[in-house]
Amino acid sequence: MSVSFDWSAVDDEALPEILEQSKAFLSDMLTVSLAAEERATTLAGVYGALCVGLLAADATLLILPKFDAAAAWCILATALGNLVACLICVYMSRPYNFFLGGYEPIKLVSGATDKVWMLCYICEDMQRRIDQNKKALKRSATLSTLASIVSAGSIVLSLAAFAIARLFG
């Protein structure tokens, strides 16, 4: 959004309510952000465990008396796809600039002489924080979708690897 808005045009009586609603919205956004981070961490664990399990299965194929290269390539392709999905989720769960509500008291002292100006400033800053947080949440959701697509795509890749290994192996 980040649309420039003249907060001084808002009725002085409405500013405290707008500020309260902004605080509540920012607080709820933080809750959603924590849920997105937990989702990313959980998915990273799932994709990572799947990758390790597939690599263990692939290693088992290596010691069999009758080695099946097509199956080994198929499993390896799926494992690598899930490793990439895991890495995307790890990247997604990294700490990034996510803004919280509230202020350090020292930051508001300079504007404390004019209550209306201070409330306008806080409302404007809250809107800026909300806009920034929306971008961060959208980026997180996009990466989560990408990780799922990569993981699912690894199955298609593994079938192609299996077919190629059967044809040329």
Would you kindly provide a written description of the structure presented here, covering whatever features stand out?
The protein has 169 residues and is mainly α. The chain has one domain (13-168). The chain has 4 helices and no strands. It has helices at residues 15-63, 69-92, 105-108, 115-168. The longest helix has 54 residues, at 115-168. The mean pLDDT is 86.
Largest sheet: none
Please give the oligomerization state of what you see. Answer: single chain
**What is Rg?**
25 Å
Mean pLDDT, to the nearest integer, reads 86
Percent range for β-strand residues? under 5%
Shape: rod-shaped
Q: How many separate structural domains? A: 1
**Class inferred from helices and paired strands:** mainly alpha
The number of strands is 0
Helix tally equals 4
> Strand-and-helix sequence, N→C?
HHHH
The low-pLDDT segments are none
- Terminal CA distance reads 56 Å
What fraction, in percent, of the residue positions are helical?
over 70%
Keywords:
169 residues; mainly alpha; 0% strand; rod-shaped
Task: Tell me briefly what this model is.
By secondary structure, this protein is an all-alpha fold. It contains four helices and no strands. The chain has helices spanning 15-63, 69-92, 105-108, 115-168.
Question: How would the blueprint of this fold be written?
Answer:
Elements: H1 15-63, H2 69-92, H3 105-108, H4 115-168
Helix pairs in contact: 1-2, 1-4, 2-4
